[in-house]
Write a structure and sequence with these properties.
Blueprint (H helix, E strand, L loop, with lengths): L1 H24 L1 H23 L10 H14 L1 H33 L1 H16 L2 H12 L3 H25 L3 H9 L4 H38 L5 H10 L3 H28 L12
Helix pairs in contact: 3-11, 4-5, 4-7, 4-9, 4-10, 5-7, 6-7, 7-9, 9-10, 9-11, 10-11
Length: 278
C-alpha cells in the first residue's frame, strides 16, 4: 500500500507540474496575449460607448471591417507591395554594408577613429531633416524611400556591430595570439561568434528604424504605400483606414522582431548571464 500511495502521489505531482512547466515556457506569450486581448476589449467597449467620436478613435471591429474591404478591393495589396519593396531593398542593402563595415571598424582601431565622427553625427541627425536633400538628389521615385530606409537601418546595425567587436573578451584574444593565431583565424573563431548577438540586436533595432523610414518617406513623396495610405486617410478623416495602416506596420514589426529574437536566443550562450527582476 505505501508503494501504491507513493506512486499515486508521484503521478499527481507530474500532472500538477505539467501546467506550471507549460506556463513557464510560454509565459511571455500568455501574458502578452492576455494584455493585448484586454486592451482590445476595453478599446472596443470605449468605441461602442459613443463617448468618443469615430473621427477621433475607431473601434477594433470597424478597423477589421475596413481592412477586409480594402483587401477585397485590391487597394491593400498595392500599398503592401510598394512599401514591402522599399523596405526590403533599403534594409537588405543597409545590413549587407553595415555588418561588414562594423566588423572591420571594430577590429581596426584607427579605422574606428576615422569613422566615429561621421557615424555619431549622422546617427544623431533626424532622417526627416535629410529627406528634402534626398528627394532633390534622387527624385520622388522609389529610390528616395529606399535611401531613407537605408539611412534609418544602417546606423543602429553598424554601431551595434562595432560595439560587439570592441567588447570581445581580451583574454580570449591573448590565448589565440599565444598560440600564434593569425588575424583571419582569430576573426572567424573569436570575433565573429562573440559579436553575433550584438549584430542581431542591431538588426532588430534596424527593423524599427527602417519601418519609420518607409512611413516618413511615403508621407512626403509617394503615390502609393502604407505611409501614403495613412497620410491620405488622415487628411480625409478616415480614422479606420489610418488604424489599418498602423496595424500593418505594427504587425510586421512584431513578426520581424520575433524572428530575430528567436535567432538571438540561439546564440545566447555567447552572452554574459544577466539576472533580471521578476
Amino acid at each position: 500500500m505505501p508503494r501504491r500511495a507513493a506512486s499515486t502521489a508521484a503521478a499527481e505531482n507530474v500532472g500538477t507540474n505539467s501546467k506550471p512547466k507549460f506556463y513557464t515556457r510560454h509565459e511571455r506569450f500568455v501574458l502578452g496575449g492576455l494584455a493585448v486581448a484586454v486592451a482590445l476589449l476595453l478599446w472596443e467597449a470605449l468605441g461602442r460607448s459613443g463617448r468618443i467620436s469615430p473621427i477621433f478613435l475607431s473601434s477594433p471591429s470597424s478597423i477589421a471591417v475596413a481592412g477586409v474591404k480594402m483587401a477585397r478591393a485590391g487597394e491593400l495589396s498595392q500599398h503592401l507591395w510598394v512599401s514591402g519593396r522599399e523596405l526590403f531593398l533599403g534594409y537588405s542593402v543597409a545590413a549587407l554594408i553595415a555588418v561588414p563595415l562594423g566588423l572591420v571598424a571594430g577590429w581596426y582601431r584607427r579605422l574606428n577613429f576615422v569613422l566615429d565622427p561621421f557615424l555619431s553625427a549622422l546617427y544623431a541627425t533626424p532622417r526627416v531633416a535629410l529627406l528634402p536633400l534626398i528627394i532633390l538628389w534622387v527624385g520622388v521615385g522609389i529610390w528616395s524611400k529606399v535611401a531613407i530606409v537605408f539611412l534609418g537601418a544602417f546606423f543602429p546595425i553598424c554601431i551595434n556591430t562595432i560595439a560587439g567587436v570592441r567588447t570581445v573578451d581580451q583574454s580570449h584574444l591573448m590565448v589565440a595570439r599565444s598560440f600564434r593565431g593569425d588575424d583571419l583565424h582569430v576573426f572567424k573563431t573569436i570575433i565573429l561568434p562573440s559579436s553575433f548577438p550584438f549584430i542581431l540586436a542591431g538588426l532588430r533595432l534596424g527593423v524599427g528604424r527602417a519601418l519609420v523610414g518607409v512611413v516618413v518617406g511615403e508621407f512626403y513623396a509617394a503615390s502609393a504605400g502604407i505611409g501614403f495610405l495613412i497620410a491620405i486617410a488622415g487628411a480625409t478623416f478616415q480614422t479606420d483606414k489610418v488604424f489599418v495602416g498602423i496595424a500593418i506596420i505594427a504587425a510586421f514589426g512584431m513578426v520581424c522582431n520575433e524572428l530575430l529574437l528567436k535567432a538571438e536566443r540561439r546564440v545566447e550562450r555567447w552572452r554574459p548571464v544577466v539576472d533580471s527582476a521578476s
